[in-house]
Amino acid sequence: MSRIDYSKWDKLDCSSSGSNSDDDDNGDEGHDPNHRSCGTRGAPRVTRLEYPSGVTLGPSQVQLTKAPPKASVSPFNPSAPPAQQNTSEGSKTDASQTEASGRSPLLNGQPPHAPLPAASIDATDDDEDLLYECLARNGGREGTQHWWSQTEDSAVVSFLIPWETTAKMVTDFNLREVKDEASGQYRAQLDVTIQTAASHSGTAVQSNEEDPVATSAAMHLSRQFRYPVKLAEELVEGCWQLHRMPHRHVRLLVIEVFKEPIGHGMTLWWDRCFVSDTASVVDTQTIPDRVQRIAAAGPDAQEKAKQFRKVWDEAHDEFRRRVKARKARQS
Question: In this structure, is residue 262 part of a structural domain?
Fold first, then answer.
């Protein structure tokens, strides 16, 4: 292992005063090319990273690598401008309480310092209504378990979880590729473990056949995606978040994944999110965004889409016929 020479560190001047007194003293001893003063640079500049980012240190600057692009119509991308922050001491206290608990003081049963304007309450209700409608945009709802939505290149699944769930209770999140023993195909396997609030208090959790598997210790979510998704580490890391809908008293674990492309210029619209889905299966021919896209493309594109669909169905029928014939010969 190579040794590091720390002898030059004593000559570094990182003061923020910008004083040249040290430089004047060192002038009698001659100029040292290794002596570098950062006093003239002023106070350090702090950059806050709101998401997983890459930082590259160059010879003259620091370069930030942008995060992967988010889906343009994902219902959980913040679109409303942030509320104006009041610099008064009371407002700072409210903000800290909201950030620590994940809920506003009003929802925590604490009286706010000032009543919310009626317009703000109406706007919040409208935003929640719009968000609720987008939970199943181009997708569906699987009973009391989850909602799922999709765009051309991404999908969002929202699991219904206990209201008291916090981020620290999500103790395990794993999205990996496994082989399906039944079909022999490789699929993306999702496994999530949530320590429920009841388990922290020592109370047993009642399990429900329609709900995710729940025990006295934790809630487990285990699903296989029906269609391929991208499993790159930079996309999987940070792909989930928790979200509240206060007026509906709904707490959601929201997971966003990116579809694996099937070909250049081709879009795969899902008819379901997970292999086990039954109630949320949709007709891909009536997906709203797909219908709008075809209508906007014109008659030529519509005819081309019909021809492609016809060839696709014929190829599938031929494949099934050959598989059936091969099984008949083997038996």
Answer: yes
